[in-house]
Specification:
The protein is mainly α. The protein has 25 helices and no strands. It has two domains: 1-394 and 411-519, no CATH class; 545-753, Phosphate transport system protein phou homolog 2, domain 2 (Methane Monooxygenase Hydroxylase, Chain G, domain 1), CATH 1.20.58.220. It is a multi-pass membrane protein.
């Protein structure tokens, strides 16, 4: 029996290593975003500083380990075997849940996940104990669960969301009023005070408050710190202020960079001190339980209660350092961490760009109400006061000639506020032994500072709010899924024993491997050439503007006839699967075409003065690409709906006509594609292409008349007619826009003169 539980302990530690990896991939967003978003330093420097913070913070997390042992349930009410069931169920659930969130790129809370997993697994085991007892009912569930502590933790997490948002918004608003976006001049005089305050606050809450949980600081040292707290604060403030001001005078030090980098170190340290329990607290508690079990040989696993977990136990420093090293390695090499980081940076970006999230009803309603409230407030405040505020928040123009990807998402004033406020709030939670969610705190601080900094303007507010709501909704899903999955897993293990553990391990490994493959493909943007065909190729590519356009046009003119042929074939043989696959590809094309068109303002800004006359052609070319994508979408969607709803088959004459159209369309697009790829815009070749276009348009007109004859003869029904005439009409649009695409591509690559837009339409 001891060997069985020894294997479980080994499995727990193996799962702990995996949990550290997926957990850090999720939580790296918490302390890297401000430095990455503001581009305060090269990536390697930011990672090096964060790594040092993680290693130091890991040794400060010993005091937090009590949460996993007795924070959620009463261990003295459970036997050793039951405790091990709870712990193994929690670790299996945690890995699957966090890896899922990392894969889709949403930051979630490792703290919330571990709390609700412990709660779910403990409730499952407690329910089994009550069901097997003759003198207990479900009303006795409270004797097993530490409801008061669990409620305090959950309440603290929820309150931290509100407090973090308003704290970030308030501090950022005041900071921007003082320093504005043109802060260089003001910082010469007040920057040292700002830096001294920020670093002193970080020093106090991280080094002093966090020292309580350190695994190596003695009681005497803690007592001395407590007695001399005020002195330490004053010395730190004066010392940092003087040092920073001297460095500004003599070496022109950028104080904001120092604050951001020190804040990154501090927040990484706070993360490790507060969140390490989420990854290794359960395995360590399992190990302590196993040590107690083997210390009493001959004891039945279902006869030994675990009062020992109520005792205060110091975690060995070497275990904490090993955990810190694993987190540090993950920090450097995890690609999923970058995916999660992009989500928060995108939502707090003060620059225009493509939004990751769409619009929602609640977001639109909230923006309308906010605009209405803002108008009411403006009617009350004096005009001069409003002008003064507006002047303080006026954003400078982006420097000319800088690539969009090199422009910081926000400046270092906001980055400093994000890091300082989040560090303070998390450290307060750590000092009070409350496992606050570092993800919730840092995310909501960043969102609050973004709002007050006017990064959410009328062009982006609905999308940003939708994004925030999506992330917050995901947090509630975290709690629900963590509780439910842990409850189910613990129940299965309780009933099936080792067989359930093996089965769930296989499921967890399969899930992680599958999500890794999915993320790898997603990060590439497309599969390898051996795995996908031309229909799945993306129209978006990297390179110069001309190269991007050439690629987009080439892919579209290759993809359209292939998809069109599948749609015709799917209608002819009523193949729902073929039509569904075609619709999926068409929607992807439409989305990519929209993405290209949304980038028009940024690309036009990059066009040189010598190339300014090509700008309208560039815009036109993307317009035609977008319209082509619209047209094929308006063909694919009705075709799929028609077959999906089991309407009557097309008559043989219609199928024959569509086959003729498809053949001519393929020939027409092959001609266009050849001209574009060869960069051959010879007049005779152009006329040949438009001759095929004219023939195709003539066939479409003829078949429309044939359909009208069929309607009059009552050979076809209303739904058939709506579908067929719609396909004919959208095919005509497709052909016309394709011809215009050819001309616009020719003009974009060859012209240097004035554009006559009236000659672009047939």
């Amino acid at each position: 029996m001891e060997n069985f539980y020894l294997i479980i302990v080994v499995v727990l530690f193996a799962l702990a290593i995996s949990d550290l990896i997926v957990g850090v991939s999720n939580d790296a967003v918490n302390f890297l975003n401000s430095a990455f978003g503001s581009k305060a330093a090269p990536r390697w420097a930011i990672l090096a500083i964060a790594s040092l913070g993680v290693l130091v913070g890991a040794t400060f997390s010993s005091g937090m380990m009590e949460v996993a042992r007795k924070g959620i349930f009463h261990p003295d009410q459970f036997y050793f075997a039951e405790i091990m069931i709870i712990f193994i169920a929690v670790m299996l659930t945690d890995i699957i849940l966090l890896d899922f969130y990392n894969t889709v790129g949403l930051p979630t809370s490792t703290t919330v996940s571990i709390v609700f997993e412990l709660l779910g697994a403990a409730v499952a085991v407690a329910v089994v104990k009550i069901m097997n007892s003759s003198d207990q009912t479900m009303l006795d569930l409270g004797s097993y669960i530490n409801s008061a502590k669990a409620l305090a933790i959950i309440t603290g997490i929820l309150l931290s969301v509100v407090i973090a948002f308003f704290s970030g918004a308030l501090v950022q608003y005041v900071s921007r009023l003082i320093f504005t976006y043109k802060f260089e001049k003001t910082f010469k005089y007040f920057g040292a005070l700002f830096g001294g305050f920020a670093i002193t606050a970080i020093t106090y809450f991280i080094l002093i408050k966090g020292a309580k949980g350190s695994s190596f600081i003695t009681k005497e040292t803690l007592s001395w710190i407590k007695e001399n707290t005020l002195t330490i604060i004053l010395v730190c403030f004066v010392g940092w202020t003087v040092v920073l001001q001297a460095l500004v005078w003599f070496v022109r030090l950028n104080i904001l960079k120092v604050i951001v980098l020190v804040g990154t170190f501090a927040l990484a340290m706070a993360f490790a001190g507060n969140d390490l329990v989420n990854f290794i607290g359960v395995p360590l508690a399992g190990f302590k339980s196993f040590q107690a079990f083997i210390a009493n040989p001959g004891t039945d696993a279902y006869g030994m209660t675990m009062e020992i977990l109520n005792d205060k136990v110091k975690t060995e420093t070497y275990l904490l350092i090993i955990a810190g090293l694993i987190m540090t390695i993950t920090l450097w090499f995890s690609k999923k961490a970058r995916t999660v980081t992009e989500t928060e940076i995108g939502l707090s970006n003060q620059n225009e760009g493509e939004e990751k999230f769409g619009s929602s009803f609640f977001a639109r309603l909230l923006v309308r109400r906010s605009l209405s409230a803002n108008s009411s407030l403006k009617s009350i405040l004096p005009v001069k006061f409003q002008e003064g505020i507006q002047k303080r928040f006026a954003k400078p123009s982006a420097p000319a000639g800088i690539d969009k990807k090199d422009v910081p998402a926000f400046d270092m004033i906001r980055a400093s506020v994000n890091l300082t406020v989040a560090s303070i709030l998390i450290s307060i939670g750590t000092s009070l032994k409350l496992p606050l969610s570092t993800t919730y705190v840092t995310f909501m601080v960043a969102m609050g500072s973004s709002l007050s900094d006017r990064a959410w303007d009328r062009d982006s507010a609905v999308y940003r709010i939708t994004g925030v709501l999506t992330v917050i909704g995901g947090w509630f899903f975290t709690a629900f899924f963590a509780f439910t999955a842990a409850f189910i897993f613990a129940s299965l293990i309780n009933w099936l024993g080792g067989y359930a553990i093996i089965g769930l391990l296989v499921v967890a490994v399969a899930f992680v491997v599958r999500s890794h493959v999915f993320h790898k493909r997603k990060s590439k943007g497309q599969d390898s050439a051996e795995e996908i065909d031309e229909e799945d190729a993306s129209i978006i590519s990297k390179g110069e503007i001309l190269e991007q356009l050439t690629h987009a046009v080439s892919v579209v003119t290759t993809k359209i006839p292939k998809v069109y042929a599948k749609i015709v074939n799917g209608l002819a043989f009523e193949e729902r699967g073929t039509l569904k696959e075609s619709l999926k590809k068409v929607r992807k094309l439409d989305k990519e075409a929209k993405s290209l068109k949304d980038q028009v303002p940024f690309v036009v800004q990059k066009l040189s003065e010598d190339s300014i006359t090509t700008g309208p052609f560039y815009v036109q070319l993307l317009d035609y690409l977008r319209e082509i994508a619209h047209s094929i979408n308006f063909i694919a969607e009705p075709a799929f709906d028609y077959v999906d709803n089991n309407h009557k088959s097309l008559v043989p004459e219609q199928i024959n006509e569509l086959n003729i159209i498809q053949t001519k369309l393929e020939d027409f697009f092959k001609t266009i594609n050849r001209l574009l790829n060869d960069n051959n815009y010879d007049l005779n070749q152009i006329e040949k292409a438009f001759g095929k276009q004219k023939d195709l348009l003539s066939s479409l007109s003829k078949f429309r008349k044939e359909q009208i004859k069929r309607i009059k003869a009552e050979k076809v029904g209303t739904r058939n007619s709506v579908l067929y005439l719609g396909i004919i009409n959208e095919t005509k649009n497709l052909v016309l826009y394709s011809g215009n695409l050819l001309k616009a591509s020719r003009d974009f690559t060859t012209t240097n003169g004035v554009i006559d837009l009236t000659n672009d339409d047939l």
